Amino acid sequence: MSGAFAGQVALVTGASGGMGRATAQAFAAAGARVVAADIAAESGEETVEMIKQDGGEAVFVRTDVSQAGDVEAAVRAAVDTFGGLDCAANVAAIETETTLLADCEEATFDRLVAVNLKSIFLCLKYEIRAMLERGGGAIVNIASTNSFRPRPKQAVYTATKHGVVGLTKTAAIEYAGSGIRINAVAPGAIDTPMLRGAMAARGSREEDVLAQLSLTGRFGQPAEIAGAVLWLCSDAAGYTIGHVLAVDGGYLAR
Fold this sequence. Notes:
- The protein is an alpha/beta fold.
- It has helices at 18-29, 41-53, 68-82, 106-134, 155-175, 193-202, 206-213, 222-233, and strands spanning 9-13, 33-38, 57-62, 87-90, 137-142, 180-187, 244-247.
- It has eight helices and seven strands; from the N terminus they run βαβαβαβαβαβαααβ.
- Helix 1 crosses helix 8 (222-233).
């Protein structure tokens, strides 16, 4: 999509690695000026440096997406640095459960809800305000195949990702008339540090995970999620509103 976002400004949360980094790089490669937001400052700055080395334009803003002030500051950085906000990809998330629901600690529940669900509410809140001033825009939230097919020992994570879909669809209904398109992507087994960490915590073997979660015999790549995000933000998806696009190697087809 070279040049498709020339002159536009994109905000990407979770930009320090995995799907967030790939999405930030893809926006920049397509001509957007990028605000890379993440709580991990060193890795986030690395993302910005990668973009600049490839000829793109980006800034990093350290952001705890569970905190309203941080999210508001990240959006403000887009407006103050680049003049506005046209696109946003809300990618930041965690997956830390290893137990059945009755054994899950309350602190684990609170943290998952804060990072995975409250963050989407906060991001939408401030991104929409900036886009209303801009006269429109496009937002993509990262949901999950768990939004549609729960898996054991992931009760809270699954609940948060159901919530992401609910927020996405409701916000899409509310703001379509204002020129703001809001959609979501539901990744399957994407080869990221988060997936690898979850597999290690559960003692899952790669071949078993692939047998359960993919029809292709391989993990998806972060760039494949980035491609879906950019399409949903592009003019080519101008009639796509409130949709959840599965990028899952066919997992949900079964």
